[in-house]
Amino acid sequence: MSSTELPGVRSASEAFSQVGAVHVAEGEHLRLAVLPGLELAVRSRPPLRTGLPPALFVHGLGGSSTNWTDLMAQLEDSVDGEALDLPGFGWSPPPADRDYSVTALARAVIRHLDAAGRGPVHLFGNSLGGAVSTRVAAVRPDLVRTLTLVSPALPELRVQKSAVPTALLAVPGMGPLVGRLTRGLSAEERTRGVTALCYGDPSRVTPEGFAHAVAEMERRMALPYFWDAMARSSRGIVDAYTLGGQHGLWRQAQRVLAPTLLVYGGRDQLVSYRMARKAAAAFRGSRLLTLPEAGHVAMMEYPGVVAQAVRELLYDTDPDAPDTRDAPGIRDTEDGRG
């Protein structure tokens, strides 16, 4: 029985036949996992050999599972990787209850892991996905072997000016207003803006990668729930920043038991580089990788460097992980260390 024939899972061709061409990188597979009130698009990359430990990758605000394609390819010798599209993003439809809070998104991840029976996994999160993954690791330690966070969206007292427009999406009515004010922008112009915001060096995006991003932007802008998903998810981050007590993200970071790798970029315009030390102190026994030349999506800019750090984490902390520390992989032309 193939993965697309599992109970509660429809084939990608059936699920996505009405929404346009689906881009799937060579070696990847895409399916739709169906749960009560929730449908999640899941992108997977079969490991190079059987028996490798499972991994799950969670993207950030406005992103999708394709944000992890390069890193999953790098780690196919180390993990059995899956990346999901959070509700309302990528190819996943919006949640039935329209709840985009960090807690609700964490619940979606937990429901997927419980239903798939793949846990405990090596859990990866970027930006919003980092906050979601932190909450998952804190409340369900049985589901997480190790935790890798790339520029996680954890509360900051002083938000960078470049991050303010994203935060403003949380204001009621702002999402549709931004949509109306920017409707004259082409998909290519929007994509260039997102790339300039998220990358430390936008020139690292290949022409093919940029073309795929433009096509995805065109598709997403045509979705009737696009701005609603963006606005509600932004509001979810802001609300999570204001939570105190045991539900506060920093308090939950302190409760994480899984060995943790933190990755921060020196040119990150959305999550401050200065938060790296605070995060390293909050996650007990964590290890820190800082990349001065990277932006907000280090796993896309420097997948080889991030993969090597992950391999070392797995070898040092997971008895089931193979020793792939010296695997050749696909190396980055520059390591981003400055």
TrEMBL record:
UniProt keyword Hydrolase present: yes
Ranges where the AB hydrolase-1 domain occurs: 56-309
Coiled-coil regions listed in the entry: none
Pfam family name, one: Abhydrolase_6
Biased composition (Basic and acidic residues): 322-338
Keywords: Hydrolase
Any GO MF annotation of the entry: hydrolase activity
Residue ranges, annotated region (Disordered): 317-338
Name of the protein in question: Alpha/beta hydrolase
Lineage, top ranks: Bacteria, Bacillati, Actinomycetota, Actinomycetes, Kitasatosporales
